[in-house]
Amino acid sequence: MKWVNVLGGIVGAAALLGLGIILGHFAIPKGSYVPTPSIFQDLDLEILESIMQQLDASRIRENLRELSREPHLASSPQDEALVQLLLQRWRDPESGLDSAEASTYEVLLSFPSREQPNRVAVGDPTGNVLFSCRQSEQNLTGEQGGPDVVPPYAAYAPPGTPQGLLVYANQGTEEDFMKLQAQGIKLEGTIALTRYGGTGRGAKAVNAAKHGVAGVLVYTDPADINDGQSSTNETFPNSWRLPPSGVERGSYYEYFGDPLTPYLPANPSSFRLDPDTVSGFPPIPTQPIGFEDAKILLCQVNVSVYNRLELRNSSNVLGIIRGAVEPDRYVLYGNHRDSWVHGAVDPSSGTAVLLELSRVLGTLLKKGTWRPRRSIVFASWGAEEFGLIGSTEFTEEFFSKLQERAVAYINVDISVFGVSLRLNSPPGQIPAPSLGGLSIYDNWIRYFNRSSPVYGLVPSLGSLGAGSDYAPFIHFLGISSMDIAYTYDRSKTSARIYPTYHTAFDTFGYVDKFVDPGFSSHQAVARTAGSVLLRLSDSLFLPLNVSDYGETLRSFLQAAQQNLGVLLEQHSISLVPLVTAVEKFEGAAGALDQRISALQKATPDPLQVRMLNDQLMLLERTFLNPRAFPEERYYSHVLWAPRTGSVATFPGLANACSRAMNTSLGSPAWAEVQRQLSILVVALEGAAATLRPVADF
Amino acid sequence: MKWVNVLGGIVGAAALLGLGIILGHFAIPKGSYVPTPSIFQDLDLEILESIMQQLDASRIRENLRELSREPHLASSPQDEALVQLLLQRWRDPESGLDSAEASTYEVLLSFPSREQPNRVAVGDPTGNVLFSCRQSEQNLTGEQGGPDVVPPYAAYAPPGTPQGLLVYANQGTEEDFMKLQAQGIKLEGTIALTRYGGTGRGAKAVNAAKHGVAGVLVYTDPADINDGQSSTNETFPNSWRLPPSGVERGSYYEYFGDPLTPYLPANPSSFRLDPDTVSGFPPIPTQPIGFEDAKILLCQVNVSVYNRLELRNSSNVLGIIRGAVEPDRYVLYGNHRDSWVHGAVDPSSGTAVLLELSRVLGTLLKKGTWRPRRSIVFASWGAEEFGLIGSTEFTEEFFSKLQERAVAYINVDISVFGVSLRLNSPPGQIPAPSLGGLSIYDNWIRYFNRSSPVYGLVPSLGSLGAGSDYAPFIHFLGISSMDIAYTYDRSKTSARIYPTYHTAFDTFGYVDKFVDPGFSSHQAVARTAGSVLLRLSDSLFLPLNVSDYGETLRSFLQAAQQNLGVLLEQHSISLVPLVTAVEKFEGAAGALDQRISALQKATPDPLQVRMLNDQLMLLERTFLNPRAFPEERYYSHVLWAPRTGSVATFPGLANACSRAMNTSLGSPAWAEVQRQLSILVVALEGAAATLRPVADF
Questions:
Q1: Residue A398, exposed/middle/buried by CB under 10 A (0-12, 13-18, 19+)?
Q2: In what residue span(s) does the PA domain sit (chains A, B) (predicted)?
Q3: pLDDT at A30 over 70
Q4: If exposure means fewest CB atoms within 10 Å of the residue's CB, which of A39, A652, B274, B309 is most exposed?
Q5: Confidence at residue A417, expressed as pLDDT on a 0 to 100 scale
């Protein structure tokens, strides 16, 4: 479709800032191949290129077909069958890894009742049912029917059968409800109809309940997902757009990880909270519906939610390639496995790429051609859709080991969001599928860029929220993390996300026909992610550019000065210590870059390399402070914790300022601003100290 | 004096458990000397022995004389003069270190008023003063007079002038006040007279205030400190015993670190709490007195406390020897510098040893004879007496760097508690001064031992509380720590501590005449601490024995099973996961020991050594959980956090059990028991995971 052009881009990488720069260097002269890895061996560019060439679009397509053949909701038999598929692939004698194991956690999930389907109906005052919403999506391709397609529901919403007048509450934000109240609309006992977007899923019910609302409906608005198109002939299976009956499922839990075992792995013996006392579940019954139904709802509505909580076994699968030289340095690469229904895009497009990449590397490994310098850990996470559960439990169980040894975490969940064209490419370059042979780097920089004082125009990276399994790695453990995907051209569509997201229409046929015919975008993601993985696992010096981090700090500082400077000055709070700390970081980062350059020209001894790499690896850890945001579960990273405002700056400082703004001088809220500023200054000073020469204590 | 025989022992080392074993190996055949350190160089036993021989008792004596010549209360001009002395020594061209710097924090200290001395007086009901306590100690040696001898006071006790009937409240524990109340004694508005011991200094006032007590006096009972002797001819200067006028000063602050900047370094720009809202200060006026006065106090007492809080600059001094091979691995060795008065024993006996050790090492360094494999950081901490302030601020400021790189922290504060005899010793052995040529090891094992299932009888180590500057290192940062001292024979005296502790009688003459004439015990401490330091900084493999840690865990487990097993079973809480975790730790530790042995026989490559040492170094870190004890400021170590009960077992579990014991099934207190058990299991599993082969994720 002409209006949805394709774009190669990398979305939402936080901390591997330097990699962007490095990805552009595909023209570096190739080194000669040394078959036996030694402790002096750097990344072998010939092997890298060979791997790039072997990553095969048609194999990714076959992977995706197999992965998305059946619905595979977390902990379902089909999900477990995929665990076996992964184990079989990763234990294959010809293309498997060194070892692969599944590990299982017992976690609290939420499902609709089979016996009593959730129901949304319109009644008249005497109780007659005038209209009932669909209880499942329309079976348009033969894949939306059958017992394994979970009906649309809001996971973790409590059961209940509220009824009341319907009130349209826009996105269900705090502001939306305040406006309704200001207009004199009685909210007590009503059913709020809200649309997806603007705030988290569960937050809509939290906001609603504060005003006495009895139940919440959430629908997907065609304006938000289909650029306004809503008729059947304009939507799937006639285009990639969401059909009228499509309903976005999702987890309505506020936090992530198993709800019963915060900060503890959900092993059978672990202490579990009483489910009745768990915080973070929606306070009132909530149900998602399609826009077809949403536009009919007008008056008195009955909502019947029969969701129930169940303790289920959910598996992660881990596949390992042992490092030849530094086996105690782990480069992690993962994606979740579970889907709401078939999940062809989310998450199988990522897993299909993962399997192709592990096949190519496994084959080299089994042939004895190659073994990485550092260990590679491939992961297939369980129960992500319910709140990043598998990955979070993993970080809780292996907290110490990961903090000590993890170099980086690469996440490829939805690998391709948008349509692509297939193109031939000159050898040695990764093509950006739709853009006439531009390299990934050139394509990337074309759509997402920023101006660097050092390098000029460079690709820009988004920041990492909690949208996929990278969240516990970056926020809880302080491990440099990256999320990679090809997305669509946002100048051509305003879709909030790809339209069939979390619906029964996210199928293999949808991907094959509309998202990436020919799978060249998938192949490009495989090459991009593979290249990042290889560079992290094989480079003598870790490809982490600390000066880029300095640029981010500088931009955060400037934003703080511009947006908060006057306010802080009025309250006699000086930003000078923060300025000094940023300057120290920049100085230490620049000097470290020079030391690396100098060492690269010499023949560094292996311990010198290791010491320097430890500085690079542990930099991200220095930004963690578990006491910084005690109210924000799992968030300890002082730079990437959630921000309430829209300005890209230091989150703790910005949030504290926005809370203090309307309080009086000397209030606890202003003390908290000062505390947050000190926490930040100490973290930045600590980060700078980590980058300085190790012998200068 | 016959009844105070001497004993060589090491008190209170927690985590360097393996070193005990290693200290016994002084008879290992000597290696040949390699002048240029290479990455394969192990500890050179010839150099070690040469260092042992050069540690000179008479120089230690001279150091002590100089250090304790004048009172040097934290932040006083005399304390600052000692900062200059340390800098001069550590920058000496012939015996200095690579570099030395002082760094200053601005911290909240507490002092008595010069204008209005604190006063304790007995009055009759009409207000006439019948008797006044001494406001300073008797000037017995000419050193107890003068403006620089701070009068006895309770640091951080609030000012106030309460008066009321005197009630004798024993040690001022919660139990003591409960007993008085049970006897029908009215406590409201009284002055409680308590003796030192049984509970922390500040806790006496906290307990008293709960019963409405208006003021607290604390005296040193001759039964606790002088084996009952109290007359002037039986006490100093006629013996080492405390004279009647002696008063123990001390900090009455409940926590440690600067009270205004918990978890933040007390840099000028750091956020500071409002002093009026600080928790942890005694709630009511409190004053220490001597036993001479204590026995006179009988009736209505007026207490006038005029202490005031002051922000002061307090310095740490750091001296560095850069490591030749692994400069990013730090072995820290420290002691505080500040004293209450002259502080000859506390802390100058430790600093005198520190200076002698740094002189000998500095001399080798300047000659080019030796440079350690790892970096050595010598530290002289400020304001320890007020609550470990200098060391705590240091750990707050360099949190990340220390967690990443510190191998161990060695503390030598009071280096010699007791009297010693001087003996000659055969070469190559460190004599235990009073015991006829027994080695330190043999002497140690004679007085403090335990039975190891692996090694048979071995020296035993105490566990580390918060008595000196090791506390923030072990509890807050999880750095393996050790406290070394020679103490007196506890079968010969029941003194709670050496008698002149924190009084104006702790002078050079006191040490020279009574504590260690000839300074051979000081020399033995220098040799012991020096040997530990060298072994940590120079050994190819870190001398940390992880199997010994396993023995501690096993003994904690057995104690838990014996003391808590039945109770837990009654509440359906199983210890099986804990048993399994301890077994996993033991298995992993044993296997690691074997790998080290095997590697030591081969020629390990430098990265293999480094990887293994990282496992050893980071083991202690795996026991940290900042969310385990949120109420216990700075305490994050799940094995060494404070325990309320007397059984040596896992503190979190034991404390939670004792709180839950009398609550009903299903109470939050029982949930907390289960949470603590899970926290412990996860920490031990994480520790075992850190010890397992690094390539087996």
A1: buried
A2: 164-250
A3: no
A4: B274
A5: 82
Flag whether residue B262 sits within 8 Å of chain A, measured between CB atoms: no
Residue A288 near residue A153, CB atoms below 8 Å: yes
CA B439 – CA B226 distance, rounded (Å): 30
A646 vs A560, A649, B44, CA distance in Å? 12, 9, 60
B178-185 contacts, C-beta under 8 A, 24 or more apart: B180/B211, B181/B211
* ipTM tops the 0.90 cut: no
Spatial CA neighbour of B412 closest among B484, B470, B352? B484
Residue B130 has pLDDT above 90, yes or no: no
- A positions 151-190 inside 8 Å of B (CB): none
* CB contact A576 to B (< 8 Å): yes
Residue A437 pLDDT grade (very low, low, confident, very high; cuts 50, 70, 90): low
Which of A342, A300, A332, A312 has its CA nearest to residue A64? A342
Between helix A77-90 and helix A57-67 the angle, nearest 10°, is 150
Question: Which CATH number is associated with domain B113-306?
Answer: 3.50.30.30
Active-site amino acid positions of B:
384
* Strand ranges in B40-186 using DSSP code E only, listed in sequence order: 99-111, 119-123, 129-132, 154-155, 163-168
Residue of A nearest to B406 (CA): A697
| pLDDT tops 70 at residue B426 | no
The answer to whether B641 and B654 have CB atoms below 8 angstroms apart is no
CATH class of A7-110+312-415+423-485+519-538: alpha beta
Q: Would you kindly state where each structural domain of chain A is located, as residue ranges?
A: 7-110+312-415+423-485+519-538, 113-306, 546-691
A328 touches chain B (CB under 8 A): yes
How many A-B residue pairs are in contact by the CB < 8 A criterion?
Answer: 158
* CATH code assigned to B6-104+312-492+504-538: 3.40.630.10
- Note whether B494 and B227 are within 8 A (CB): yes
Q: Does the pLDDT at position A14 exceed 50?
A: no
Q: Select from A272, A274, A328 the residue whose CB has the most chain B CBs within 10 Å, as the one to mutate to test that interface.
A: A328
- What are the structure tokens assigned to A305, written together? 């939610």
Report the interhelical angle of B349-367 vs B45-54 (nearest 10°): 130
Asked if residues A174 and A281 have their Cβ atoms less than 8 Å apart, the reply is no
pLDDT of residue A122: 86
Least-confidence region, from B370-384, B447-461, B499-513? B447-461
> What's the 3-state SS for A526-563?
HHHHHHHHHHHHHCCCCCCCHHHHHHHHHHHHHHHHHH
- Euclidean distance between CA atoms A396 and A477, whole angstroms: 9
Six-digit token pair at B657?
């059990």
CA distance B321 to chain A (A): 9
Which residues 647-666 of A are in CB contact (within 8 Å) with B? Answer: none
Q: Is A634 on the interface with B (CB under 8 A)?
A: no
Over residues B203-212, the mean pLDDT reads: 96
| The CATH fold of domain B546-691 | Transcription Elongation Factor S-II; Chain A (1.20.930)
From CA B351, how far away is CA B336, in angstroms rounded?
8
Predicted pLDDT at B323: 95
First to last CA, chain A: 60
CB B278 within 8 A of CB B260: yes
In this predicted structure, what is the pLDDT of residue A436? 52
Interface test with A, best of B97, B398, B694 (most A CBs within 10 A): B694
What would the two tokens of residue A21 be? 């720069």
pLDDT tens, residue by residue, A256-308:
999 999 988 888 878 888 888 889 999 999 999 988 888 777 566 888 888 88
Catalytic residue, chosen from A384, A393, A396, A620, is A384
Q: How confident is the model at residue B589 (pLDDT cuts 50, 70, 90)?
A: very high
